[in-house]
Each structure stands twice: as C-alpha cells, then as structure tokens.
Design goal:
292 residues; alpha/beta; Rossmann fold; 2 domains; six-stranded mixed beta sheet; four-stranded antiparallel beta sheet; 8 helices
Length: 292
C-alpha cells in the first residue's frame, strides 16, 4: 500500500474572474521509502502540491490518502496532530527562531508531544549529533553559516521521528558547498527508511533521488524513475535547454555589442579625417606668401 495516494486532486484560489487553478486533477502515488524530487518552473504548482501533501492546505477537489487514511477533509486539529506525528518540514527560509539556541529550536516540536524539558533537550542533542551539529548546540542561528542553519532545520524536522520528510527548496539559499551538505544529510535520512520529497530547480540535485516528477501549469507532465547517483534523463534535457538558452543570450549580447561598436566606428573615423584635414591646411603655405 502506498504511503501517499492523491486522486484527481485540484486546488483553486480566489473567486469568480480572479480564480487561479494551482493544481489541475493531479494523481500521484508515492511508496514508503522513496526519495522523490519535484521539478518545474516557478508558479507550476510545486509548493501547492507539497502543502497539500504536508497537510498545510486542503484540496478543493479530489481525495488524499495518507498511510491508508483519507485526510483530504480533516478538521484543523486532526490535521495538526497528523503533521506532528507523521511529517517533518524543511523550508527554504529555515524558519529557526533567532532568540533561541540551536538546541532549543530543535527541541521545540517535542513540546507538543508532552515530553519534559530534560527529555526534550536530550532527544534534540542526539539528533544534532546525528547531523554533525553537536558542537553548535548552544549557538544562535545568527552565528551559523547557511549550511549549518539548514542542517539544524533538518535536525528539527527529524526530532519527532516522522515517516515523511518534505523539503521545499531546501538548498535555494545556499552555495554549492552548503547544498551538498544538506543533500547528503537528506540522503542519510532516506537510507534510514524515511520517505523524502524535495522541490528543486537544480537538475544536478536529481542525482540524490530515485524518482523525479516534472510539473507545468498545475499538472504532472512527466514521472520517471532513475538510479541514485545519476542525473535523471528529463533533468539532463532541462540542463541542455538551459545551456542553449544561456549561450544564445551571450551570443545575442556579443552581437549587440558588436553592432554598437560598428555604428560608432564611422563617427570616430570621420572626426579623425576632419582633424587631419585641418592640420594639413594649417601646415600648407598660403598663395600670397608663395608668390612673394
């Protein structure tokens, strides 16, 4: 049985003429233990899909089965309990509380599970050790690098031992080194049996996934399985198209620069000719002096 099963799920925002169709009858099945990347242009519905899967939003139409239970129409309190016990979130903006230490930030979700303060800090410390942040427990978010902040956010997502990890652009604000650190941590989480879903614009990051879904205009247009370590074929084509586009832009810029220089060249040459003529005229003796 699939962990996640979406059946003809649609999501509409607004009313009347201002209605926006964010998802258009999306059907998607995800098994326990998958590591899935979701790709697509901005505004294609990736984040909306993640919010519905993560029970942060409800579909307008369709069914959503999570671990065999229909959760599409749950009351807010019921959805919150399932989120707490089943789902861990990692956001692009990190969402750590600036006035709390890393240890306190990671321990925070355990407050809602009724653990004592000592137990919360113990569990949080063990999770931070797991992601290589043990020596940063008492640092504040402002004292960490981008990769370290996201590592702390991953630890916070794992502290409740969720079955499902949802990462919405987890490397969007990071450099290449920080991105690699975060993706290696997510790979380690996946190897322990968790299901991981992550949104990305970077085709290179599909190396970490064993399945890649492509979206456009609120619809899943392609769904492919790939080997971990290899760039998915669809993502490879995306990289090729991006490279051609960049090359065309550079060629166009070079052509415009060349045209601009060509347009200016005659004006400069005419100026030089006039200057030369004036200089020659000054040096040539007048007819009067020649006759004398």
């Amino acid at each position: 049985m699939a962990l996640i099963d979406l059946r003809d799920v649609s999501k509409l925002y607004g009313f009347g003429d201002a209605t926006t169709l964010a998802l258009d009858e999306v059907s998607l099945s995800i098994d326990q233990g998958e590591f899935m990347a979701i790709m697509g242009p901005s505004g294609c519905g990736k984040s909306t899909l993640m919010h519905i899967i993560g029970l942060l939003d409800r579909p307008t139409h369709g069914e959503y089965m999570l671990n065999g239970r229909n959760v599409a129409r749950l009351r807010p309190g019921q959805a919150a309990r399932i989120r707490r016990d089943t789902i861990g979130f990692i956001f692009q903006s990190f969402n750590l509380i600036p006035r709390m230490t890393v240890l306190e930030n990671v321990a925070l979700p355990l407050v809602y599970k009724g653990y004592s303060l000592t137990k919360r800090l113990e569990i949080a410390s063990n999770i931070l050790n797991r992601v290589g942040m043990k020596d940063r427990e008492y640092f504040y978010p402002s004292q960490l690098s981008g990769g370290q902040i996201q590592s702390a956010a991953i630890a916070r997502a794992l502290v409740t031992d969720p079955k499902l990890i949802i990462a919405d652009e987890p490397t969007g604000n990071l450099d290449s080194a920080g991105s690699r650190l975060v993706m290696e941590l997510l790979s380690e989480v996946h190897r322990t049996g968790n299901t991981v879903l992550f949104v990305t614009h970077n085709p290179e990051l599909t190396r970490y996934a064993n399945r890649v879904v492509y979206m456009r205009d609120g619809v899943i247009v392609h769904d492919e399985h790939s080997n971990i370590g290899d760039i998915a074929e669809g993502a490879r084509r995306t990289m090729y198209v991006q490279q051609i586009t960049e090359d065309d832009q550079l060629s166009g810029a070079a052509a415009i620069t060349s045209i601009a220089r060509t347009d200016k060249a005659p004006a400069r040459s005419k100026s030089k000719v006039k200057t030369k003529r004036r200089t020659i005229a000054k040096r040539r003796p007048s007819k009067t002096k020649a006759g004398a």
